[in-house]
Amino acid sequence: MNTKRTGRNPNRAKSRPKSTQERVRTFLEHFGGSEGVLILINPDPDAIASALAIKRLLWKHVGRTSIAYIREIQRLENQAMVELLNIPMVKINKVASGDFMRRILVDAQPDHSEIFGEFTYDAIIDHHPRTQEWDAPYVDIRPEYGATATILIEYLRAAKIKPSINLATALLYAIKTDTANFERDATEEDVKQFRYVFHYANINLLRKIEKSELRVSDLQYFQTALEKRIITKKAVYAHLGKVTSTDICVQIADYFMRVYGIGWSFVSGVYRDTLIVIIRNDGYRKDAGKLASRAFGSFGTAGGHRGAARAEIPLDSLPQKAIEPHDSVLEGFVRERLNL
């Protein structure tokens, strides 16, 4: 099933509900009765927590809801989050297509993944910059927010729903991770909603989740990154070669940003048949999302926020000179595209 794509409605901004209460009312009007609703996510903390909040919002409004994730949960913190907070989810390939007639996409947009693009959606809620000319009956995209969880906390408050301990802990963790503890792309609204759910969260559970960060096997990639690092002016880059998880690229890119004097961090690696490029910066007059789109958008999916972005490029989509899967060739391609 193809994603519905239309030209943007010039009156969309005029017709958008002005208050959160109106947004929630409009959102809920799209769902009801005995129908099943499937919430699709790419399972990072923000998406997981936001999906759980939507599931709570729809409770008593629909027959049933399920959260479906499109890729394996490899990062230890995310596994701990799902396990410790008892978050029910199912892999998308385990879902029978006829079981759910309604779908919601959260913390993502249809062109962020080929799998997402296979479906139509009744609602899309996200905080990433809007991408292609897709549409849905209900859309709430707020790129100025640091986390989609912030939007969903607003929804819960407008609906007068007090979050459970597990839901509040998930939402708290989501904002912490997506804003890098308020060091990246955070707004006053993120802080406000963080403070609200803080009162209901279990901080001991949160600490357990945050301490589940690295496997012993991950240390080899840190060694590779330190040995192969290239520093030019205030930027650092490392190519890790083949990786067992895309998240290790994220962790090392974040790690490099802790180095004094570094304003840009770039880490690349090959996961299965895809070249992954992670971009971070200190947020000062920089835009990682625009850089990712400009450098890699013509080869694969690329984009993000001012302080954080990523690109995912199928190896067979690389230019002819970079198709050879040698690390030196791929490293040269990334450096050329980023002018490093």
What can you tell me about this protein's structure?
The chain has 340 residues and is of the alpha/beta class. It folds into two domains: 12-211, inorganic pyrophosphatase (n-terminal core), CATH 3.90.1640; 218-338, Diaminopimelate Epimerase, Chain A, domain 1, CATH 3.10.310.30. 36% of the residues lie in helices and 19% in strands. It is built from twelve helices and twelve strands. It has helices spanning 12-15, 20-29, 45-58, 76-84, 148-158, 165-178, 188-198, 203-211, 219-228, 247-256, 288-296, 327-338; strands at residues 36-41, 64-69, 90-91, 102-106, 123-126, 138-141, 230-232, 235-242, 264-271, 274-281, 301-304, 308-314. The strands form two sheets. The chain has a six-stranded parallel β-sheet with strand order 3-2-1-4-5-6, with helices on one face. A six-stranded mixed β-sheet has the order 7-8-9-10-12-11, with helices on both faces. A hairpin with a 2-residue loop joins strand 7 and strand 8 (235-242). Helix 3 runs parallel beside helix 5 (148-158) and helix 4 (76-84) packs antiparallel against helix 8. The radius of gyration is 20 Å and the shape is globular. The protein starts with 11 loop residues before the first helix and ends with a helix.
